[in-house]
Amino acid sequence: MRLELSSYGKGDIRDPFIVVRNADGSFSSDFLFEKAEKCAPKPPEGMPGAYDGADEAERLAVTLKDKASGLTLELYYDVYADCDVICRSSRIVNGGDKPVTVLRLMSTQLDFSKDEWAMTVFHGAWAREMEKQTLPVGYAKLVNSSFTGTSSSRSNPFVMLHEPDATETAGACYGINLIYSGNHYSSAQLNSFGKLRFVSGINPEQFAWTLLPGETLDSPQAVMVFSRKGFGGMSRNMHRFVRRHIVRGPWRDRERPILINSWEACYFDVNESRLLRLAKEAKKAGAELFVLDDGWFGERSDDFSSLGDWYVNTKKFPNGLSGLSRKLKELGLDFGIWMEPEMVNTDSRLYREHPDWTMDIPGREHSEGRNQRILDLANAEVTDYLAETVSGVLEEAGAAYVKWDMNRIFSDVFSRSLPAERQGETAHRYVLGLYRLMEALTRKFPDVLFEGCSSGGNRFDLGILCYCPQIWASDNTDAVCRARIQEGYSYAYPMSTVSAHISASPNHQTLRRTAPETRFDVAAFGVLGLEYNLCDLPADAKKELAAQLELYRRWRGVLQYGDFYRLQSGNVHKWICVSPDRRRAVGLVLRELAEPNTQYEDFKAAGLEPGLIYRFYSLPHKVELMKFGDLVNTVSPVHIKQDSQAHYLVARFVKLAGETEECRVSGAVLMNAGIRLSPAYGGTGFNEHTRVSSDFSSRLYFMEAED
Ligand code: DGJ
Q1: Residue 190 CA, ligand 1 centroid: distance in Å
Q2: 593-639: per-residue pLDDT in tens?
Q3: Which of 262, 454, 455 to mutate to test the pocket of ligand 1 (most atoms within 8 A of CB)?
Q4: Which uninterrupted H or E stretch holds 234?
Q5: For the chain, what percentages of helix, strand and coil (3-state, to nearest 5) are there?
Q6: Domain range for residue 684?
Q7: In this structure, are 341 and 381 located in the same domain?
């Protein structure tokens, strides 16, 4: 049978929805239908849920009872018809007179009839987030889970279940994500009759929650979308839902500022005068917000000390945070600050004062991560302290923005605030404590823009997005890697949530050199920021950057809030973002590696209005002479030795005009036939119509409807 929930021990031997250890030590339960009613959706207790600002969503609540134990199970189905989404969650109520232990409580269960399915998951690591892998669903169980304490870059909680031959534009595709930031679990498996069971929720590994008589326990919400229009249709439904019902507060629909972040420009070596020099350049380039990253507090000059000591280092900042903030405001920049509130170094005042506030096991040597420990957020005393401390910093700094970082995985999970028999609650109670803290701070500072971060994308999930409208997607700022990473995120998360920075070349993580154009183009498909030392840029590079930021400001409404289509993936990435009224669109073509004799390339748009006439164009750009190396001698009247002083000198003054595209064409033609772009360089000569499409090159194409 296909079931909406399956409990353990009554003959259904598939992965269960719920497992409870009863007071008598047995594990069986038998939840049978009692009633169903319609009511208004509510978030799960202690956790964020989908936001229903316009009171449009409806809830179906189904109540089931296990007579023997007196436990009640409620299943909630919240229907967001505007986005074609159902959110499922559950609540267990101990209506009996004895304590029980909940060992598993899922958020959703989907049983399918016999069909062929594939599951796509997004796995990775630090600096390698969101690598897509598709696996056939078979008789061996497929599990996508995290056990890091966070939702993790190892396995993002978002999964797709789809027809094996689904494409970007066709085929049945379900997208399922959890509004949860801790250990998660999703499994898919065929039973002996070829029927698929899928469940998703909190990871039951080491989860054991004591439920006293009268107490309740809620699961986080699972967001479920479906589309017959393939991965693309599913993604756009999900994006709409995240934009409308996950992200909230004044920043929900507001264009996000262009920020400059000090991390890759200075690392720990921050001080007021250095930052002000950087800020002046950033302001000239067009930045709107200055973010002081790690290194400003306590005795912090590397990652061995001071986390927890959230007072300013006055040697580096003699005028305090308020002094820096005032000077930035005078320059016309808002001030943002980095914090890692959940952490402490043992070399800190906080640890010396409260060694009992950390998550470690008394009597056992602790396994450190990045030389730091996690504060025990399961302890309300700790979260209250943090709420006050973070508030103090934000007030002193007059902060308009916070980057909330979290830089290690859990080890030695243990809360001193819980008795031995409740240690199985620690990981989930930590997440509840985190939400309590984030809730208090976002309520107190509603206008502050919070950006999530966890060594990049180690906690990129819908739970964090309920508090942080955007998340730092990866510590990998290499444009080519970022194109892949951001494409991975695009399956589940809209561009307005994906923070992406232009950084130095060679890139600090890969040492790859990429053109300013490529770095800008990739960052523009997200919430663009800057993260490098602008002071050292030559004058023409500063001018080019200023022009790019000006362009971004004109188009960021479309790029952050438009409908996103993946037109092509692989060695060549083609994307398009279309404004909600379909009158403006930006396309990207990015080539990872050059291939010979592939001159002809079309740009086939999507999402436009077929009957409208669009101006399709690209912007003028220059091609570097150095790119052609020794070929310079095929046109130079005198011999130029490659890479010589003379070569560089000539290259400084001789800039070659690259191709531009310009035409007027209907949306129908743009989407069906596409635009044949200027032929790419193919080894047989160059003129101003040649599209130099070498390694790591990219172009943006703009489409504007004419009246
Ligand atoms: C990890 C983050 O992802 C980086 O962007 C930076 O903020 C460092 N932490 C600072 O320690």
Answers
A1: 41
A2: 999 888 899 999 999 999 999 999 999 999 999 999 999 999 999 99
A3: 455
A4: helix 230-241
A5: 25, 30, 45
A6: 577-621+658-705
A7: yes
